[in-house]
Amino acid sequence: MYKFKGFDSAECGDSMSALEAMINAWMEAEHPRIRHVCQSMRGEHILLSFVYEDARLLEQRVAASTQTGITGGFPRIYDEDLMDERPTSPRIPATPPPMH
Description:
By secondary structure, the protein is of the alpha+beta class.
């Protein structure tokens, strides 16, 4: 699920270094997976908006899917099906078709 986080330079007295420190502290604490960033002006103030995914939630989902047998986003049954593939399979020819 995507989340939104906004930063307003007015919150830090329009100091660029203070704004950077706020954003860096958030990134270090939350480890967001940023999907979109937007910068805009509100009068004399800079607004920075982030659309992100919570990295911890993503890691939990991946761990849960691994425990249930889903790897790479595909159920385990597909992995087993691919293991049964032989070079002589009708889906994958052993030799490429001739070039004309």
